[in-house]
Design goal:
Rossmann fold, alpha/beta, 327 residues, 9 helices, binds asparagine, four-stranded parallel beta sheet
Length: 327
């Protein structure tokens, strides 16, 4: 099943980036050590499925990934899919930021071929390592006809979930991910309504900061971010998108300076909506010029805002984008 078939021959492309799936335990903590060929060896499959072309892209803990690294992953997927003989792509990735990179890849996914991210919660040299099972599931998902056209998927702990709306729910469980909308995935806009159809950017991308809000949060955090030329801000507000009136006032100032502000929630599940007023409610934040993100939570909203601002989209397009990610 493995090998390095040349461009133009039917194949799955496996891109490795590091993470626990590739990690060995050391005296200084677990660190990535394995490349894609070693990951495949651990799966040990011997069936007669398509050959696998391997790409060792990077070897990092995903918590240490930069935005440039994340875009490099998305470019590697696009490079792989540029070969029409490629059936689909599997990406091995750390779980800490998998919801961000997989969603970024989903934003740029413009054809039906499956792209499946996977990782592990236990290092590869652990007796109960979950990586080989997860990688086997990801490889099987790529050749399963039912995964075509479903956007980027994540195979972990026996579950196959869409990247859109995904978040890490456990620091330890093998089924470490869930989706924000209990009962079903968050709708992705149809391919015909995609706004990120251009090439995946190379070089500088827009700076977007994200803050979790809480009682007593200082509006100065937002002011400092604006002073440091953030192009966008994502606020993980309390409840269904609410905060203190002082934050609303600072948001209004940021918006006046051309900063795009997206309000989401620090609560894991459920819709964020403009329901409450009182000066700090999502009704007020929206009046101050913020966009309310109904379903995308802060890590994914931030990736979307980085991609949309970098592509030069204006406030109307960006507002429509968030609204289109509905239930
Ligand atoms: N389970 C994991 O993969 C966690 C690891 N720190 C990473 O994200 O790379």
């Amino acid at each position: 099943m493995t090998g390095t078939p040349p461009t133009g021959t039917p194949a799955i492309v496996l891109i490795s980036t590091g993470g626990t799936i590739a990690a060995h335990r050391t005296a200084d903590g677990a660190v990535p050590a394995l490349g894609s060929v070693e990951l495949l060896t651990a799966v040990g499959t011997t069936d007669t499925g398509p050959a696998i072309r391997t790409v060792d892209l990077m070897s990092v803990d995903s918590s240490a990934m930069t935005v440039a690294d994340q875009f490099a992953v998305v470019r590697a997927i696009a490079d792989a899919l540029a070969d029409p003989a490629v059936r689909g792509v599997v990406v091995t990735h750390g779980t800490d930021t998998m919801e961000e990179t997989a969603f970024l890849a989903d934003l740029y996914a413009t054809d039906d071929r499956p792209v499946v991210f996977t990782g592990a919660m236990l290092p590869s040299d652990s007796p109960e390592a979950d990586g080989p099972t997860n990688l086997g599931a990801a490889l099987a998902a790529v050749v399963d006809p039912t995964t075509r056209g479903r956007g980027v998927l994540v195979a972990m702990g026996g579950r196959l979930l869409p990247a859109c709306g995904l978040f890490k729910v456990s620091t330890t469980d093998l089924a470490a991910f869930d989706t924000v909308q209990a009962g079903g995935p968050v709708d992705r806009p149809p391919l015909s309504h995609r706004v990120l159809t251009g090439p995946v950017p190379i070089g500088r991308t827009a700076r977007v900061d994200a803050f979790t809000l809480y009682p007593g949060v200082s509006p100065g955090l937002i002011a400092a971010s604006v002073a440091q030329n953030a192009a966008g801000l994502v606020l993980a507000a309390t409840g269904a998108g609410n905060t203190h009136p002082d934050i609303t006032a600072e948001v209004a100032l940021a918006v006046q300076r051309g900063v795009i502000v997206v309000v989401t929630s620090r609560v894991p599940y459920g819709e964020v909506s403009a329901t409450y007023g009182g000066g700090g409610g999502a009704v007020d934040l929206r009046r101050a010029g913020a966009i309310v993100s109904p379903w995308l939570r802060a890590p994914q909203a931030r990736m979307a805002l980085i991609a949309l601002v970098t592509a030069g989209h204006d406030l109307d397009v960006i507002t429509d984008f968030f609204v289109a990610h509905h239930s």
